[in-house]
């Protein structure tokens, strides 16, 4: 595993995100694509009208999730390439988030413009 962050996601949950799925995808199609990586505990397919379908898959063994991300990210399926990665956040509400991106860092220290220049 390349980084501690991805290690903690996979070891704690074994859950992955699958995006860019075809509009007519069924849960069975997802199972067919990922069963070879290990025993699947749960498939959560989000297929709302007007949006591109996506899914979350939870494997029994978190190492199988690693293999699935490595093996299926960018995989050609239908007319598109699958996006397979770890979920962005496994613990919702874990801290302040900027409008886009990771949680913001705040400290008690602030920059001020009260300074004197010496020649």
From TrEMBL:
<dbReference type="InterPro" id="IPR035979">
    <property type="entry name" value="RBD_domain_sf"/>
</dbReference>
<feature type="compositionally biased region" description="Polar residues">
    <location>
        <begin position="110"/>
        <end position="119"/>
    </location>
</feature>
<dbReference type="GO" id="GO:0005634">
    <property type="term" value="C:nucleus"/>
</dbReference>
<feature type="domain" description="RRM">
    <location>
        <begin position="14"/>
        <end position="89"/>
    </location>
</feature>
<dbReference type="InterPro" id="IPR012677">
    <property type="entry name" value="Nucleotide-bd_a/b_plait_sf"/>
</dbReference>
<dbReference type="GO" id="GO:0003729">
    <property type="term" value="F:mRNA binding"/>
</dbReference>
<dbReference type="InterPro" id="IPR050374">
    <property type="entry name" value="RRT5_SRSF_SR"/>
</dbReference>
<feature type="compositionally biased region" description="Low complexity">
    <location>
        <begin position="87"/>
        <end position="104"/>
    </location>
</feature>
<dbReference type="InterPro" id="IPR000504">
    <property type="entry name" value="RRM_dom"/>
</dbReference>
<protein>
    <submittedName>
        <fullName>Serine and arginine rich splicing factor 9</fullName>
    </submittedName>
</protein>
<feature type="region of interest" description="Disordered">
    <location>
        <begin position="73"/>
        <end position="119"/>
    </location>
</feature>
<keyword id="KW-0694">RNA-binding</keyword>
<dbReference type="Pfam" id="PF00076">
    <property type="entry name" value="RRM_1"/>
</dbReference>
<dbReference type="GO" id="GO:0005737">
    <property type="term" value="C:cytoplasm"/>
</dbReference>
């Amino acid at each position: 595993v390349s980084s501690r962050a991805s290690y903690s996601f996979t070891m704690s949950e074994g859950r992955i995100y699958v995006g860019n799925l075809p509009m007519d995808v069924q849960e069975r199609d997802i199972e067919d694509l990922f069963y070879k990586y290990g025993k699947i505990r749960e498939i959560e397919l989000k297929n709302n009208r007007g949006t591109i379908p996506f899914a979350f898959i939870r494997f029994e063994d978190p190492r199988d999730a690693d293999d699935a991300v490595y093996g299926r990210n960018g995989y050609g399926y239908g007319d598109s390439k699958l996006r397979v990665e770890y979920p962005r956040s496994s613990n919702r509400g874990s801290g302040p988030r900027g409008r886009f991106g990771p949680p913001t860092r705040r400290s008690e220290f602030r920059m001020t413009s009260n300074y004197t220049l010496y020649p």
